[in-house]
Amino acid sequence: MTLKQLITNKEEIKENLDYQIEGWVISNRGNDKVRFLTINDGSTVSNLQVVIKGENIQNWNIENISLGSSIIIKGNLHLTPEAKQPFELLACSLEVLNNVDLDFPIQKKETTLDFLREIPHLRHRTNLFRSVMIIRNSLTFEIHKYFQENGFLNMASPIITSNDGEGAGETLLVDDESKDFFFKQKAFLGVTGQLHAESYAAGFKKVYTFGPTFRAENSHTSRHLAEFWMIEPEIAFYDLKDVITLADDLLKTVIKNTINNYPDEMKYLNSQNPNLLDTLEKFLHNKLTVLDYKDVIEQLKKYKDNFEEKNIFFGMDLASEHEKFLAEKIVKGPVAVINYPKDIKAFYMYQNEDNKTVRAFDLLVPGIGELIGGSQREASYDKLVKRMKDLKIPTEPLQWYLDLRRFGYAPSSGFGIGFERLVMYVTGISNIRDAIPFPRVAGQIKM
Amino acid sequence: MTLKQLITNKEEIKENLDYQIEGWVISNRGNDKVRFLTINDGSTVSNLQVVIKGENIQNWNIENISLGSSIIIKGNLHLTPEAKQPFELLACSLEVLNNVDLDFPIQKKETTLDFLREIPHLRHRTNLFRSVMIIRNSLTFEIHKYFQENGFLNMASPIITSNDGEGAGETLLVDDESKDFFFKQKAFLGVTGQLHAESYAAGFKKVYTFGPTFRAENSHTSRHLAEFWMIEPEIAFYDLKDVITLADDLLKTVIKNTINNYPDEMKYLNSQNPNLLDTLEKFLHNKLTVLDYKDVIEQLKKYKDNFEEKNIFFGMDLASEHEKFLAEKIVKGPVAVINYPKDIKAFYMYQNEDNKTVRAFDLLVPGIGELIGGSQREASYDKLVKRMKDLKIPTEPLQWYLDLRRFGYAPSSGFGIGFERLVMYVTGISNIRDAIPFPRVAGQIKM
């Protein structure tokens, strides 16, 4: 039984219950009469206190067991209702598998995030990263669970594509060592699985992808990675309104379940960032604000002196500072902005009757800005072709995509969640490089 | 409510229950008094029969609704206990959203798998691919569920690495358009997430990855893809025996649950491949056979005339024909082969005392050959370094990996499941290109 299972099923704990913990030493203190080891087994941020008494201290050479060592301890649980953790382990046997070398970089003393980013293979052995990665795991599974319980089909959109994505030059190329077109054509790492997901929504109705996406992003910000994970649901017979409702319900469900299932990790993260739980609870209990892009522009104009980019006008792409200000200062919570100008959005979005805007939405959250981007898709074959021609996008490579409109098309809508941004939002960490085990950014590959 | 939910909760169906189906037309037959449309909503391979009577046939222009059209039908359920499906829908209203153009390639008549492979964006609208992808989805979720229920942490191993994998020349390279080392060094698409998973097992104890992996595989076989998904669990405090037990239990659990939860799809697949369910049930109810590599060699020698490669000797790498023969003819079921010669296995595997073999296992299954490959990992820093030097693998780029042995190492074991091979095994399809929505192989990228 893991420590997490023990903590979760407290009622099963009885005085003297046999228990064995396999894990790593977090601390070792005491005197020559009684010593306390705290052990973490990786299942929770909480540790188990192990008590060692009498001659065992010397026999087992306890004083020399250092932080980080791998260890197996058998013993009996002792109830301690008055303590922070209502049980501890009285050790009967102890085996140190591997003591750590002296240069083990994770020590009791505080270390900076910058320093920890240099050792991504070890940083999860701190309380902070242990908590972040446990929450990341919870969010992963809760997202799958949500979609499966709601009748969605998980599909694998291809990673390697012949499509260079939405923008120019931001795509990574793939080839074999000979650089002789292994795929007989230029091949790219996908920036989205959406187009392929649309083809599966036409037939399976409700589908979602959950996989890595790539961008040759050269800007070094705290919100961008060259390799990140995306969740992209796509649903036939859904319009923009339906898909915003879905996004809101999905987020609220996975966040609520994560808070409920991982109270110790959320408590720890809240101790590092005291507004975290309040902010999340507020989101859970409030109706999502939906604002029209044109109204957002009018609002932002009133605050233009707060921005570096003070030229606010209909047709502009909102900068990160505008998105954050809107969510943090004006709405004071998550906000879905809808009906963006078509010229700043992708060709496949549903064209509104005004001929100026498209049925897109971005979900903006405090502290991060854009968390989700989505839209209803254009249903008309002719409108799509015209839009592609206007934007000088060759239609031939996407003929298969256009054809979906001719073969039993139903209105289709979907969105993409930047998974690491969701991890940031729920854990309260402020740099996206701390939301993924081994971050990849321009100019470096660590480990 | 989806059709799948309706079928699964049969007890909720009452005569006259209001029901709306949104989906695609599978067939349209009848006469001018009564017509039958069968509709599929993507949630199951089963279709709903819709009955249209009297003047509605003409008013709604039923005769012109063709296969593949998207449609919304409201009506009342009518119980038909004597029929194959115990209910049908009597239509009250019907709306065709999009009739298909005449060149829609999915027609009632049989089409070949080769032909369908040319249209990966449409082939899921056949019974076969609908079933395969629904089973693929079930296996995906059951695997996550199994690991989560057993205390594993899902982690994202990086896709882009500085490590060119286990073999030479089989790795795909990544760069940006300028081909000027976007990552300031040669960057590869990962062939395994194992080394990174090992670093997370040291701390989280039980972890697993589920993501795409890549190989510049030039052989055109029915069992290889350039892009495929892998599941790689890694567990600290586990040895080879533990991890074989885990692999067996994982496979049996996810297959059993998939058969139970998707009876209609498995029934359809069994109709295409009549031994399928028998084979799977036999696996579920039998203890996994475990054989030592050296004994396998002795066995295969007896049958050497059955092989193209007749030279069977200790030290050889088993060819696919040997693996299949062993599983199909000798064991007649899945078999774990253990203790392979170290020279045909990777540097990180635990070296046995005989100095000749390593604690590796391959799980071989009938029809496919290798489904899983795994091992206990070498625990000794010095042995690892020596082995790398013998194999001329530079130690410097993997110093971080070696260091795991110095920082509280616990015996660690793990394996990788080729996910598409598992899909083949459970669905009975014989070409791996039919186990993934958009297959990627050397020389072509379709869609």
3D architecture notes:
The structure is a homodimer of 447-residue chains. The model of chain A has no long low-confidence stretch (mean pLDDT 95). Chain A has two domains: 3-104, OB fold (Dihydrolipoamide Acetyltransferase, E2P); 123-434, Bira Bifunctional Protein, Domain 2 (BirA Bifunctional Protein, domain 2), CATH 3.30.930.10. Chain A has helices at 3-8, 56-59, 113-117, 127-149, 194-204, 240-261, 263-272, 276-285, 293-302, 320-330, 381-390, 399-403, 419-427, and strands spanning 18-30, 34-40, 48-53, 70-79, 87-98, 153-154, 160-161, 172-176, 187-189, 206-214, 227-236, 289-292, 335-341, 357-365, 369-376, 412-418, 440-441, 444-445. The first copy, chain A, is built from 13 helices and 18 strands. With 447 residues, chain A is α+β, with helices and mostly antiparallel strands. The radius of gyration of chain A is 26 Å and the shape is elongated. Chains A, B: GO terms for molecular function: asparagine-tRNA ligase activity; ATP binding; nucleic acid binding.
